[in-house]
Each structure stands twice: as structure tokens, then as C-alpha cells.
Amino acid sequence: MPERSESDSRKLLKRLRDSLAEPGQGQERLNRVTHLIADSMLTEVCSIYLFRDAGTLELCATEGLLAESVHQTRLRLGEGLVGRVARTAVPVNTANAPSEKGFRFMPETGEEIYSSFLGVPIQRVGEKLGVLVVQSKAARQFSDDEVYALEVVAMVLAEMTELGAFLGDGAALGALHKQPVMFRGTTGQEGTAEGQVWLHEARVVVTNPVADDPEVELTRIRAAVGELRVSVDDLLAAQSLDKEQKKVLEAYRMFAHSRGWLRRMEEDIQAGLSAEAAVEKEQSATRARLSQVPDAYLRDRLHDLDDLSNRLLRILTGQGRDTGAALPENPVLVARNIGPAELLEYGRSLRGVVLSEGSVGSHAAIVARALAIPLVIHAEGVVVQALNGDAILVDGDQGIVHLRPEESVAAAFRDKIAMQTQAQLRYADLRDKPAQSLDGQKISLQMNAGLMADLPSLESSGADGVGLFRTELQFLIRNKMPKRDELARLYARVMDAAKGRRVAFRTLDIGSDKVLPYMKPQDEPNPAMGWRAIRVGLDKPGVLQMQAQALIRAAAGRPLSIMFPFIAEYEEYLDARAYVMAQVKREADLGHPTPETLEIGAMLETPSLAFAPLDFFKATDFLSIGGNDLKQFFFAADRENERVRRRYDSLNASFLGLIRQIIARCDEAGTTLSFCGEDAGRPIEAVCFAAIGLRSLSMRPASIGPVKSLIRRTDLAALRAVIDAECAKGSVSVRPAVMEFLAEQAK
After folding, report:
1. Which of 202, 225, 260, 663 has a CA that sits 20 to 30 A from residue 431's CA?
2. Catalytic one of 46, 60, 676, 688
3. Which CATH number does the domain housing residue 292 bear?
4. Among the options 177, 363, 378, 402, which is catalytic?
5. How much of the chain, in percent, has pLDDT values that exceed 70?
6. Which strands make up the sheet holding 400-403, listed edge to edge?
């Protein structure tokens, strides 16, 4: 491979480093940088565009264009050649810029006399910061060496931007980690929190992007890659790995042993970068390439690349290793994603959790709900923007995160927290009072749980019992299948903590978005409608039988309630029930105590089950409507898809009609019915469900107070009349009329 003008690029980088080391404000430094680059690359123009916000670029410095256009010229993402570079993170190199598709003429800059254009992204680990451009009057294509040299310079500018080298009074200037930032994500768990950032994986900060001695840096990178490869090989040699885990690690090892990866980093070092900067440059470049490919498998390999690059950076810098640093006083965990076991290790010490990825049904979301920790997911960019110790506000109700908030924002947020605290104190007064409406109807309010840590909420929330105990969390947080005796001890502790209150144990609900670490992943195009929940239990009955044995032994002669998830037809319920009854007989034959009473029920989560024969409703001891799944299948709206999950209203007349049909079937069969899901914990929805005939609702503990408060202030018979009238009129949703009724009632 031909040498890349290494002496010239190294000379340019050293001049750049020396220039940035000189005193001066941000604008002054940017001006020196553009002059230096134009001079070194023999071009008439060098310009730096930085992101003013996520969708807008601003001209922040230029050599050659009109000075008065600085901080005045702005481009939208994707607009013009500069916007194209910013959007795609791919260089644009042309000898005739005006003839290029998408070219935008900006007369205020005086650029019409410049024909040649070369623009490269200023980025750091997939984080787009801006665009670096050089232009010349002569119509010429820039050489590969010139493109490479400008990319190397852009890499250094990205690192220096992060370190605050351009902090100043310009409109779009400022250190990356100094300014207030707001992220709009998705609610994973309601609640609000104020605290300090604690990064799950501390960010490695490169403080020396330019190298003095390439030979020293080459020795460092080769030694670090060698250490990385040994550690990956050691992981692969572990005896406990199954076939699937080995396959994943083999792909991981292929990345680590890639000769091209090391060669490219060595070339970056020869061009003048330090070992650390070379790692980040290749990480950014490969990320940009992989993010554009249509193959989902290749895009998923970004996680492998990021993990390897970050591990290599930690080896080179020593950052991110066990430094003994302690959690801040009010930690808010910030991560790309996190597993349930890792989140549980932090426990209730966390004030909140913010993820740049994740899903509403992910393991992390389930644990966050169990721990009653506010959670915001899909907060894109938060991991690269945040540093340990940064002030952060988490609004789980709105799915909004404020990083390094201005004092006015923080003050308003504290007012909101104070109001919520006052409301919770009012709800606490209702703890021992029944959820009885103005017209005398009593509603049983149950809580959802999945961990021992949930059980104290039975007392503090005033819940009548546990309407749903998720047994899968004990499987998800382990690296291997739990033993029967372990589960029996846990279930016994749950019953002990309930102090005689009913606990409905849902059997293992895995598949879809809940995959066991030791279970072979199923490559399914639509996992939510695939091999999951009771379907897994019936196909792999050993686990279902083991769980039944553990529950029977845990009951030790006490009443026991078991329900099966995701039953779609009568026969599935009969088959699952038969497995449980066989274990009851087995335990009796062994001389072990059997439950005093045994209730066996099902989750009604598919519309098909609402149309099951009446014999099904008679055969079940109880039913619980799984509102989250039932709603997504009824409206054909994936609850993991933000474009559609909020599109459909739970108070839609058609959906209420389905629930009314289920209530009528259960009344006819004499079967107890409850509603379990997010909507059960929303006061407006909950009071409407109660009005149309549901007598039991199961929700997160924090929702019991607000729901009870509204029920006690509502005449359910009068509300039912409003709902009936709206449905009779053919209204699409009863919500407007319900809101009007409740407002009048509150007067």
C-alpha cells in the first residue's frame, strides 16, 4: 500500500496541536485552525461547520469565505454538500461542486468562485459534531492522501472539541460536555428524579490526540491489541460456554484478530495520531460504514466493534478499570443498555435510569418497574454527551431528560417533584381505606411484583394482594437455570411477606423481548407473536413441571394461585393445567403437603381467547386480562414501536366493547376477572374499567394511591351511563365525555 504523505500530515497535526495550545478564546482558536489548514493544504478556503442543534449546522469559522457569514450561515441536516456529509458521515470530494446533486449556493459566503470541494465529518465514536471543508478555485479532485489527511485533522478537532478547546462566546461554540442538553426519549417507568450521572461504562477521554513519536505509539498499539486478543481467547476457552455463546464469541474474536483493523490504526499513527486517537478514528469510520448497510446482522455487529474498541482504549489509557470510585449521593444510571442482573446489583440506590437504547418490555424496564425507579429509554446520544457527576433530571412521566440543566429548568423541575411528593402524602392517608366509589361499589386494587424487594410495597401502598408475580425475573438475572429448591425458597419467602394476602404467581413468561441468557435465541421475524410464554412451557414441559413443584412446596399447605401467560386457546389451558395437577398428585404421593386451596387461572392477552367456548371460562378458576398484549394485538400496534404504540386509545369504544364482552362471559361462568397492565394504573382508564364492571385491577404499587383516590371521588354508576351513551352514539372514544364528566364531578 502506498505511503500516505506521513511527514506532511504529521507536520500539519503538530502545527495544529501547537496552535491549539496557544491561549485564546474559542473563536480565535477556530480562526487560527482554518487558516492553518488552508495554508498547509494549499487551498483558498477552509471552513468549520458545527452542529448548533441536532438538525442544524452553523458556519463557525472560515478562511477564504466572507467573514460576515460566520455564525450567520446555517444549513439543515442533509442540505447542500455540507449537510450531506453531516447526514451520511461520508466525505464528499468533487472537482465541480455546483454540478453536484443537492448543491446549495450560499451567496452570503462569497463561495461562487470556488469549484473544488472536499468535506469530511467531524465525529467521535458515531457522534456527529460537524463538518470540515476545504475549497479551491481550480477544478481538481483531491487525492486520496489529501482526503485522508483532512480526516485525520477532523479527528483531532473532534477530540479537542470534547476537551473544550473551542469554548467561547460564539453562537454555536462550547465544550461538548459543558452545555445544557435536553433529550426526548420514551417512558419506560413513570416517576421523576434529580441526581448526578453515573455511567455504567465510564467514557474514555482521549487527552493526547497528536503523537510526538510514532514508533512509541506503534509499540503501544501492538502491545494493547496483543493483550486484547489474549483476553478474548481466554473468554473463548471458558469451559462453561454453550454452543451459541461460543458462536457469538467467535465473531467477537474475528474482529479482535482482524489484520486490517490493526493495519489501519497503524497507518493513522504514521499519519501523526496517538494510539488512542487512532482507535477512535477507526471506530468512528467503521461505525459510519456499518450504520449505512441494509443487513441487520452487520449493523448489530456495531455492538461488538464498540465493545472491542472501548476495551482497547481502557488497556491503552487505564481509564475505566476499577478505580474504587464510589457512586454519587443521588446516582442516575446512564447506559446504552443494561441487563437485569447488572441493574439489580445497583438496586434501590439509583434515583433513575436513562438508556439510549432499550425497550418498554425489556429486562431493564421490568426491573426498573419492580424497583420503582424512573426510567427513560431511547434517549439517543445521552451516553456520549454525559460525564460522571453531571447534574441530570429524569422525567419518566414525559420521557424527557435534562442534562446539565439551567437553574430555571432545575427549579421548575423541583417544584414538580415537590407537588408529586405532596400528592403521595395525601394518597398515604388513603392506605387503609377501601377503594369504594361514591355509589358504594368496592374495587380490589392489587399490585404487580417480581422481586422480593417489591413486597414491602404491599403494606405501604395499601394493596389488597399481588395480582401478578412475574416469576421470569428469577430466570433472567441468572447465567444458568435456577434449581427447584432455590425457587421454592424464594416463592415461600414471597408468601411469607404477603402475610396471608393472595399472590397470583404467573408461570415463566419468556420469549419475545425476554430471552434467557442460557437459552438459544430464536431468530423470529415477529417474536411478540412467536414462540413465547406458555408455548415454550408446553413444548419444554420440564421447566413448567419444575416451577409447579417449586410453587407447591413453597405453599406448604397454604392457599396457592397459579396463572399461565399468553393462553390463546382452550386446549392450551387444559394441557398446562394437567401438568400442574400431575405435580400436585406427585407431591401428595411423596408425602409432601399440598395446597389448602389451589386456583389455576390464565392471562387473557389474545383476542382469540375472548371468543373461546363458555366451557373455557367455566374451567378457569380466575382470569386476568393482560392489557398490554391484548391492546397491541387488538389494534395490531406493536407496543415496542414508538410510531404506533401511542396511536390507539384504551378508551376506544371498540376496545371497551371487547372488555365488556369478556366481563359478560366471566359473569355467566362465575369466574373471577381482573385487569393487569399499564392502563390499570392510569386513574382515568382505571375508573372507566371499574365503571363497566371490572372489580379487580392490578398495577404498580405507586399507582394504587392515585387510582384509589379517583375511585373514591367518582359515582361509577353515573360514569357508566356516560360511557354507555357515548358508545350508543357511535363515538370512536369515550375519553372526551369521561373527562368532561369527571371535571363536572370535581366541582
Report:
1. 663
2. 676
3. 1.10.274.10
4. 363
5. 86
6. 181-184, 400-403, 391-395, 192-199, 331-335, 352-355, 375-377, 186-189
